[in-house]
Amino acid sequence: SLSRTESSMLRMWMEGQGTIQISDRMNIKAKTVSSHKGNIKRKIKTHNKQVIYHVVRLTDNVTNGIFVNMR
């Protein structure tokens, strides 16, 4: 599973923010952002950004659906 940092970074990445923007926002080096992106790709087992985007959307839909049903 993704770490909290990786999850935050993934959201920013999928919103279209670049490595420099993410590094500025998270107050970390661009190289660190690149390393985290590599870890995310490895954990999701794809280097295709479109696949990653769809995984994030599906996960959000499932998670939000579960959260709503638990109320």
UniProtKB/TrEMBL annotation:
Presence of the UniProt keyword DNA-binding in the record: yes
Record SUPFAM superfamilies: C-terminal effector domain of the bipartite response regulators
Top-level taxonomic group: Bacteria
Keyword DNA-binding among UniProt keywords: yes
Stretch forming the signal peptide: none
Keywords, alphabetical: DNA-binding
Pfam families in alphabetical order: GerE
Annotated InterPro entries: Sig_transdc_resp-reg_C-effctor (IPR016032), Tscrpt_reg_LuxR_C (IPR000792), WH-like_DNA-bd_sf (IPR036388)
Record-level GO BP terms: regulation of DNA-templated transcription
CDD domains assigned to the protein according to its UniProt record, in alphabetical order: LuxR_C_like
Residue stretches making up the HTH luxR-type domain: 1-60
Protein name: HTH luxR-type domain-containing protein
Organism: Salmonella enterica (Salmonella choleraesuis)
